[in-house]
Structure to design on (486 residues):
């Protein structure tokens, strides 16, 4: 028995170690790419990856979820850094965002994502994908500082071809190699070997390559928040936006991970929020990017055979090792290959089938979806999401307003108005119209015996009609509503 348990432990350790390596290989280009797209120091993406792996991995209740820098917040980070004028002030907003997430977890707000309409969530994700594509396209084709570089463009376009081709590959054994790792390896080979040997005029300058600091002290990588901005109201507005979007993104990813978990384990959304909050607090404190649970890493983790959270934690330590001991190798990576990876990610977020799916759901779903996308593209994520929710709400109210809340029955020389179960102030006009259009000289019964809720305004309308019915020679009987009359 003991031997069997030992063998199972060794097998589990082996599976989690191999999974950690697979996730690590996917994480490096994503960490760097998200940082580059966010207009932040490249090291900030790796710091977020390290914290997401080690710290969030330790506190998260999920066995398979893997956290790291959030692609979904690139536009928020980019605009925030631009607005504040420096990265340090943004870090203060991120620190407070982490605290907000911890509070949300403590007050058991983990169900927040359940209240967002699916069409708005789809719109948010699609807009993020479109923003990534639009923002990274110039870098993909070698445009840096209004100057086009042919060598960089060749690498970027070839990288994108590899990514889409690898996805369609039918030979499954080769697909063990992560496509992002393949792209990085091929792009380094092209620039360092092929260009150098045969096309020296195409060799990329340093401004077209990753440029991590070549230091070996951990402290040299960190950037601290600008605490002098603690009374700036815009810091807290940004913190709320980051906290809400990061929380929704993490909870949606968590839900997706539960679906693909071979053991179908359910975890606490509130504990996950606390774990993410701790991660974002530390990321803000140490100079990282916003962290969320990332479905791309999580799915790689599952497919590579991970069984518990050890895989996510080891992947974080592997990232730390890479930053400390092999930054020189990382600095060989062309920026255009990272742009290709992000555009590929953006395409999947904004895939045509998502538009088709929402269109087929009908106008009630499609218009909020499109409205959310347009608003986000032309304003920001928060305004877009709020706008999408408002459109959804208006559609819901219209549908509720249009619902007929009564039936007219002609029986035994009398009319019966049978009231539905719930009647709100939205239905006032319906009740007014039906009462005003009744003929004179009739026997009328207003039957509220099935009614559970009726708004006071509607009660007043019925009371006024009851008082004036005598002038139309209407003999009125009201049943089922007596206890609701004053």
């Amino acid at each position: 028995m003991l031997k069997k348990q030992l063998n199972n432990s060794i097998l589990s350790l082996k599976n989690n170690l191999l999974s950690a390596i697979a996730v690590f290989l996917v994480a490096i280009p994503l960490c760097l790419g998200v940082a580059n797209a966010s207009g932040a120091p490249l090291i900030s993406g790796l710091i977020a990856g390290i914290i997401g792996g080690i710290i969030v991995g330790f506190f998260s209740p999920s066995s398979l979820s893997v956290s790291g820098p959030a692609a979904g917040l690139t536009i928020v980070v980019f605009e925030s850094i631009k607005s504040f004028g420096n990265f340090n002030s943004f870090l203060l907003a991120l620190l407070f965002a982490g605290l907000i997430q911890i509070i949300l977890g403590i007050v058991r707000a983990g169900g927040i994502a359940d209240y967002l309409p699916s069409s708005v969530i789809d719109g948010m994700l699609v807009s993020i994908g479109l923003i990534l594509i639009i923002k990274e396209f110039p870098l993909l084709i070698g445009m840096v500082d209004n100057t086009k570089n042919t060598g960089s463009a060749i690498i970027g376009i070839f990288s994108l071809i590899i990514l889409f081709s690898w996805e369609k590959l039918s030979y499954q054994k080769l697909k063990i190699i992560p496509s992002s790792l393949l792209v990085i390896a091929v792009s380094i080979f092209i620039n360092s070997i092929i260009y150098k040997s045969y096309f020296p005029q195409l060799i990329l300058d340093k401004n077209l390559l990753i440029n991590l600091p070549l230091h070996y002290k951990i402290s040299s990588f960190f950037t601290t928040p600008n605490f002098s901005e603690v009374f700036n109201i815009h810091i807290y507005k940004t913190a709320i936006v980051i906290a809400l979007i990061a929380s929704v993104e993490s909870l949606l990813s968590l839900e997706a991970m539960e679906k693909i978990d071979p053991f179908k384990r359910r975890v606490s959304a509130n504990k996950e929020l606390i774990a993410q909050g701790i991660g974002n607090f530390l990321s803000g404190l140490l100079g990282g990017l916003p962290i969320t649970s990332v479905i791309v890493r999580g799915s790689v983790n599952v497919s590579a055979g991970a069984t518990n959270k050890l895989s996510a934690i080891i992947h974080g330590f592997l990232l730390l090792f890479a930053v400390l001991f092999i930054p020189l190798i990382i600095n060989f990576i062309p920026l255009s290959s990272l742009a290709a990876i992000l555009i590929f990610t953006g395409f999947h977020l904004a895939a045509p089938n998502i538009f088709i799916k929402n269109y087929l759901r009908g106008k009630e779903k499609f218009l909020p979806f499109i409205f959310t996308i347009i608003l986000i593209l032309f304003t920001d994520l928060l305004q877009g999401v709020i706008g999408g929710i408002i459109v959804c709400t208006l559609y819901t109210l219209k549908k509720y307003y249009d619902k007929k809340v009564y039936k007219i029955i002609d029986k035994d020389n009398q009319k019966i108005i049978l009231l539905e179960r719930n009647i709100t102030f939205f239905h006032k006009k319906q009740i007014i119209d039906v009462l005003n259009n009744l003929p004179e000289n009739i026997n009328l019964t207003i039957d509220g015996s099935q009614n559970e809720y009726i708004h006071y305004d509607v009660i007043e309308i019925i009371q006024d009609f009851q008082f004036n019915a005598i002038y139309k020679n209407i003999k009125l009987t009201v049943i089922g509503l007596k206890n609701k009359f004053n």
